[in-house]
Amino acid sequence: MKIRKLRGELQRQIVFAAAFLFVVFITLAATTSGQMLTPVWVEVGPDGAAIARVVVNSASDCPSIQIDGVGVRMALRQPTPPGFRPACELAIPAGARTAKVNGKTLMLPHADPTRIVAFGDTGCRIKGSAIQDCNDPAKWPFAGIAARAASEKPQLMIHVGDYLYRESPCPLASEAFCGGTPAGDNWDAWNADFFTPAANLLEAVPWAFARGNHEDCTRSWRGWFYYLDPRPWSGMCQTYSPPYMIKLGGFEIVMLDSSAVNELFADQDQIIEYTGQLLSLHPENAWLVDHHPFWGFAPTIGPLPPIPISVPLEDAWTRATPRGYSLILSGHIHLFEFVELQNRPKQLVVGDGGTQMSSPIQAALQGMPIRGAITTGAEAEQQFGYTLFTKTKTGWNFTLKNSAGEKLISCEIPGSVSDCKSGAK
User: Fold this and answer.
1) Average pLDDT over residues 65-84
2) Within a domain: residue 338?
3) 233 or 28, which is more confident?
4) Co-location of 87 and 132 in the same domain
5) How far apart are CA 161 and CA 190, in angstroms?
6) Whether residue 204 sits in one domain with residue 256
7) What's the CATH number where 188 sits?
8) Nearest to 209 by CA among 160, 242, 258
9) How far is residue 217's CA from residue 238's CA, in Å, rounded to a whole number?
10) Which domain holds residue 61?
């Protein structure tokens, strides 16, 4: 009889212990999930190195990553700027085949990617009298564009800069558009303008991040350097970050920080700086990614012709005469532009990711002068969207798609603007 009672008591204790451990496990899992404020994303840095990052609730919340089945805890990225939530990071070893966090597989860089998505200028503009309707997905469509781009199953995402546009508090007269929104270079504004709307795309594909003028040393540099720049963080702002090359198999990207560029004037110090940067790297067949177009056009009001911008970059190119570039990919102008000139790489502007659009360009761009050259062909579109690049036997096809995923224009590299096709043709 006593043995039966002991057995019964032991069974009850075992059941209780199992139930207790189950509750503890579920609680810990729920707590861990709640501690991560963003998905864990993977970005590519110099030489194609992969870095995993995540924003967490507190400094003790850095999760572990299972790399090829071995658990490695992510490290706190320090120092955490005032007003920001902590970020954790881990350099993923070259040759790693799998990486998982809480059972979810991270997307590692792909050697020789064949499907690439690009866009930039994505935040919701709140500055002075320029107020975008952040609550209307048709007027600020970044979340939908990011989700649509994720559905393309790209192997690389390139953001050409300008992430945070909520620079000023929402005016009382515009509360229907932006009432209660955060503003400034802090976690809440970065979360509202970038991390929340980009969440689906962040976890779907590795990213290459360019720095825009909204992330220069007078604006949102803390969030840029702490959260997105792939290199070590010192807590200080750099006016000119050194350029670096991303190599993914035979595919090359040169990342150039143009955040400080004076758009309209030939600043001699900047010309010298960017000439030196262009001379410092020697690609074989690369895309040059930066924020300001080397040869792009800003729309004007009325009958005035569009204005070519980024004078220091144009002059630096003339002085450096760099070789080994097949495409320049930029943003800054809130339009899509495809510009070709003789004996220079083609310029693609993809500043159509969600920020309030620029006025459409009405004038014909062919034959327009740009310092030291004349355009031989150009195309401009004023619609929110993203550009999908698909590798071909001879180069790349790129297709501009709107926020609904509809094709607007399709072109080839190498190829001519005159050969571009409109719509779904």
Assistant:
1) 97
2) yes
3) 233
4) no
5) 13
6) yes
7) 3.60.21.70
8) 160
9) 7
10) 41-105
